[in-house]
Amino acid sequence: MARRDRVRPREGDEDSTIVLEKAAPTRRPFLHILAAGGAALVAGSGIAGWLLWPQKVLLPPRVPAPPPARFPIKVADEATILTHEAAWLTVFRFAANPAIVVLDFPSLRMQGEMLNRVASLIEKAGLPRDRVLTDGELASAIRARDDTVETYYDGHDYSVSSLAFFFATADRQHIALGSQEEQLRALIEQLGWFAPSAIGALISVPRVSATITETMRATMLHHELSHGEFFTDPIYAAYVRRFWFTALTEEERGAVRHFLGSMGYDTADEELMYNEMQAYIMFTYDPRFFLPTNLAMTEARRWQLQTAFLSALSDGWLKTALAEHMRQLREAGP
Stretch 296-312: mean pLDDT, rounded? Predict the structure, then answer.
């Protein structure tokens, strides 16, 4: 989920939460040149002298903080994750679909340090899709959007294949990743997600803070969980694609692209467009994040689309959630 102010209005026995200290921001390795004088006493024939030899000293490269040997993971439902107050990075498997892994961050900054570079490679507009940004390039890209490490994204969502591609690309470039990113790599290895046959999705949410209210956190989590379902259920992904091309008009698809483009999404990525469409139109209800008017759409038209989407949606937690939301709206009346 991109920042909200762009368009305003089974490892089954895993049973504890992860305890990781927040890592301080790290810097990239650099060459520091020192002019060092060495004193050498030359003896012989009664003649002594000092010889000074300037030399360059290479400082050792940055060594990321070692990740834990194993990340404890707890299985939890949406309500439990929502009410959790992360004092450190906490990892959950989503009970309704354990292939979805939720990272619950104690701060937006830690979330950004771990995942912003992934976002820049996978879905941000105007950035390369074939190479990982350096620290300096990432900082420039964030500033170009008038953002900070904290505000670049409110929440993140990635498929297994996207995460594997990120690390493979970084390794090919010999990019020195930060400690948070190396912790992410260790988690992906533990989950077995580097295997070609792996199925999974990683999503993230930050804890409640001065800038993130409980309602906003609930909206982010529900939005990101719908992405998790898209990445892990090929039947659902195919259904969303079909809905995109048959239920929405060409003008509505254009409006979705315009809306997402205003937040920095790569509008040339068609799958990204209809994945975000389902998350916003069907599962994002906080007006601080989305309103039908963002798409030049009426509330009645959104209701019509939600009704059509629900009618042919396969049984599961996502269908139950959408049906419950629409029931509450009907009971609330106009």
Answer: 97
